[in-house]
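Translate structure to sequence.
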């Protein structure tokens, strides 16, 4: 009997990301692994996104209005038929020839239900900014440090969705953080010592309004999973909220000595 080849499902939500989405598509298409599907959920783009999608017949895609990114990703989860699932946003992209290593890890570690690796942050033009590396992702660490989430570099077995459910759709910014906490309460995070993805970091995806909403949603999630939040958690949230204020620089002159004194 021939060995069954695991299938990978990649979900990409998008809305008016024609500037970047072709990089995303090609990073999946040009992998060293053939048994995959790439599902793109478009929220009704008004730019040239649909023309780009039509160029690639291997894609599975729909274009319709949705209720936010979590709703779009959940639509993709429902369509997914893979054994291993991930989502990749339409301005991010994968490392070259990484799928084979990911599948090999799952095959060699039958108890692995959730796998993550390193992530490289780049600017709008794909120039290196910094990198998150190392096996520091565990439930307690993630609970205290939301910024260590490496969403584009995470893959999980289809069993995970069956056991913990889909994304929480009333969260619009930190749905990945809450989802991974839910997974961490039930499963161990396994680490692959490879760079898996590249995350584009640029001004348009870090608006003040978005940061303010992020701070509020983070408080809601962190308080739910850890009712007895400590000072460091509150300090993190306060700092994130300050990032969204025009008076940020003024407040940071006051806050930085406090931060240094509590490290």
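Result:
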């Amino acid at each position: 009997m021939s060995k069954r080849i695991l299938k990978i499902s990649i979900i990409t939500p998008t809305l008016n990301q024609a500037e970047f989405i072709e990089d995303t598509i090609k990073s999946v298409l040009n992998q060293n692994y053939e048994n995959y599907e790439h599902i793109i959920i478009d929220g009704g783009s008004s730019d040239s996104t649909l023309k780009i999608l039509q160029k690639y017949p291997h894609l599975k895609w729909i274009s319709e209005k949705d209720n936010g990114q979590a709703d779009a990703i959940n639509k993709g989860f429902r369509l997914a038929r893979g054994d291993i699932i991930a989502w990749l946003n339409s301005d991010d992209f994968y490392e070259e020839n990484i799928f084979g290593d990911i599948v090999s890890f799952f095959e060699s570690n039958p108890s692995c239900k959730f796998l993550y690796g390193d992530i490289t942050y780049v600017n709008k033009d794909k120039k290196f900014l910094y990198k998150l590396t190392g096996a520091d992702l565990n439930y307690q660490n993630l609970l205290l440090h939301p910024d260590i989430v490496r969403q584009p570099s995470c893959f999980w077995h289809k069993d995970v969705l069956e056991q913990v459910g889909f994304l929480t759709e009333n969260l619009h910014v930190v749905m990945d953080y809450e989802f991974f906490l839910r997974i961490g309460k039930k499963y161990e995070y396994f680490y692959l010592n490879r760079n898996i993805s590249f995350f584009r970091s640029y001004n348009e995806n870090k608006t003040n309004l978005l940061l303010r909403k992020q701070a509020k949603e983070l408080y809601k999630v962190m308080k739910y999973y850890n009712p007895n939040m400590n000072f460091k958690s509150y300090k993190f949230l306060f700092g994130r909220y300050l990032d969204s204020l025009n008076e940020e620089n003024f407040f940071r002159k006051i806050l930085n000595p406090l931060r240094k004194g509590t490290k």
